[in-house]
Design goal:
alpha/beta, Rossmann fold, Helicase, Ruva Protein, domain 3, 6-stranded mixed beta sheet, 5-stranded parallel beta sheet, 21 helices, 39% helix
């Protein structure tokens, strides 16, 4: 029951109870890695409290700041003690301090790859190794990690290196903590569970394969979770219920496809008539038909636990997106010498705008003070000790529309494109993005709107855009690619959106030769694919034909058939393609 006494919605109740159960399983078997908790507020705080309580009173709990440096994370030189004593004094880092406890990572979706890598290594090995300033420090670090995901965009997720090393992923949305009966509490927690049977292993492997999960860690986590569920329930062997719990909590959130339907019976063979019903006296001892295989039972349980919208998304061919990195359409990251987010230091001389890191310079020089004969109160610094800061900044994104303005339906296509461009521009100031528009008609492609964030300029340029004529598709694709490559040279992340029916009738030389036009279009699409530029191919023909899908495959673009798309539908499709890239 909820705090107000009302019965909570089923989905809210299920997510909350599953998250609490996952926290208990992590407390029983810390090798499950931990949890990813997206949104939730008070709900995820309660899950963390349940995890800490399950591990026992007095376990260390550490929160990992987003700006943490390697020395604080992994351990290293104690600068103050080293300078005062004249000899190298080490100290352990945050991960070693959390040995046997919990590491909580707020805003995990913003964690840098350079920070995630050593944490992932510690989860694999159970220890941290810090080698710097002539020191080698090895410390035990066996901890359970909780990644708090506060991302608001679909592509804002914790680093894959960490997400794949934790067993449980939960998206709370607006779920609140509920006062539910503890149906998973065990009367006696045992310490040993018998080795899993072949049926259990087959069921986990078959479910993993059926859901399209390509991670080798997922079935291992599922087996560990089933074992922990058996321990929690006081059983000495893994049962069907334990396997279903593990599959629901571990494999369900990682599903990327619907299971293949059963094969149809060969035509021409009449099905055998069903056997006569057994006598009433036998119904209690024999069910109709053979027992259902364990893998089928487990798979049905996982599918039944997934939200309906996720099932629809998977059935439509989309993938359920787990924690992943940012999409290309959002702007890649670029190293910078002078500004951006700090990502460490390197040896070097602070000149040409490079910035000296004083603390890291002192840390590099401190172990050598006695050897150098430094006087009391003074620090001897040499050229090799100098350290300069390294920064990383996010590249701005440029979305380039290449619109087919030919034919009798040009007005409808252009109206859709204009509306989608204006919707994207409305977000430009927040997301530091630019939008450009290339139109191709007649025999040439024309740059109608150079990359801009000015909505007034865009509306003025789009207002008088003409339509009609032939379809020089190759020229349009080449013009869009050249504009994207120019944007990339200026330090931006380009993304192409091609709006056409895929049927070219004007070749790159400007003449109307059908086969040559198709060959040139395929060559232009291949050039886009080789360039590595992210793209989406929007097929706006009334009835999509194979030409569009073929060109999209050559480009390596996401294919979006939208025969009746309005501006908002096109805007949503483009954003989805950017996130998926």
């Amino acid at each position: 029951m909820s705090e107000t006494g009302d019965t909570p919605p089923p989905m809210q109740s299920d997510i909350w109870s599953d998250a609490l159960l996952a926290a208990r399983l992590c407390a029983i078997d810390p090798s499950l890695g931990g949890l990813v908790l997206r949104s939730g507020g008070e709900a995820r705080d309660a899950v963390i409290a349940a995890l800490v309580d399950g591990l026992g009173s007095g376990v260390p709990v550490r929160r990992l700041p987003s700006h943490i440096d390697d020395e604080r994370l992994l351990g290293g030189l104690d600068l103050g003690a080293t300078l005062s004593t004249g000899r190298a004094v080490s100290r352990v880092g945050l991960l070693a301090e959390a040995d046997g406890g919990v590491v909580i990572v707020p805003m995990a979706e913003r964690m840098a790859t350079s920070t995630a890598a050593p944490i992932a290594a510690a989860l694999d090995t159970g220890e941290v190794i810090a080698e710097r300033e002539g020191m080698a420090l090895r410390s035990p670090a066996r901890f359970t990690i909780v990644l708090l995901d506060d991302g608001v965009e679909p592509d804002e997720r914790p680093p894959v290196a960490l997400a794949e090393r934790v067993a449980f992923w939960f998206d709370f949305g607006d779920v609140r903590p509920l006062q539910l009966l503890d149906s998973h509490a065990a009367t006696t927690i045992i310490g040993e569970v018998n080795a899993p049977s072949g049926d259990v292993l087959d069921a986990i492997a078959a479910t993993t394969l059926a859901l399209g999960i390509d991670s080798a860690r997922a079935p291992n986590f599922a087996l560990r979770a089933a074992r922990a569920a058996a321990i929690l329930a006081g059983r000495s062997a893994i049962t069907e219920d334990d396997v279903m719990i593990a599959a629901r909590l571990v494999l369900g959130p990682r599903a990327t496809r619907m299971p293949a339907p059963p094969e149809a019976e060969p035509e021409g063979e009449a099905p055998e008539p069903p056997p006569p019903p057994p006598p009433e006296s036998e119904t209690s001892e024999q069910e109709s038909g053979d027992p259902q295989p364990l893998e089928d039972v487990v798979l049905e349980a996982v599918l039944a636990s997934l939200p309906k919208d996720v099932l629809a998304q998977i059935a439509a061919g989309g993938q359920r997106r787990g924690p992943q990195g940012r999409g290309q359409g959002k702007g890649a990251k670029q190293k910078s010498a002078t500004r951006g987010r700090p990502v460490g230091v390197r040896a070097g001389i602070p000149r040409g705008g490079l910035r000296l890191s004083l603390i890291d310079t002192l840390r590099s020089a401190a172990p050598w003070q006695r050897v150098r004969g430094a006087e009391a109160g003074r620090v001897s610094i040499r050229r090799d000790d100098l350290r300069i800061r390294r920064f990383e900044k996010k590249m701005e994104a440029t979305t380039i529309f290449a619109v087919d303005a030919s034919g009798s339906s040009a007005l409808a296509r252009l109206a859709e494109a204009k509306g989608a461009v204006e919707l994207l521009l409305a977000e430009a100031y927040v997301k530091r993005a630019q939008v450009a528009l290339v139109a191709f008609r007649g025999t040439v492609a024309e740059l109608i709107l150079p990359p801009t964030r000015s909505l007034a300029r865009a509306r003025k340029s789009l207002g008088a855009l003409p339509g009609g004529g032939g379809t020089p598709l190759a020229s349009g694709l080449n013009a869009a690619r050249e504009l994207a490559e120019a944007a990339r040279k200026r330090g931006r992340t380009p993304f192409l959106v091609i709006l056409t029916d895929g049927r070219a009738n004007i070749c790159s030389k400007g003449t109307m030769v059908g086969q040559a036009a198709e060959d040139d279009a395929e060559a232009a699409a291949k050039a886009i694919g080789l360039s590595g530029i992210g793209s989406a191919f929007v097929d706006i023909s009334p009835r999509p034909r194979p030409e569009g899908a073929k060109l999209a495959a050559i480009m390596g673009a996401r294919y979006l058939p939208l025969p009746r798309a309005d501006a908002r539908a096109m805007h949503a499709a483009v954003k989805g393609a950017q996130h998926a890239d």
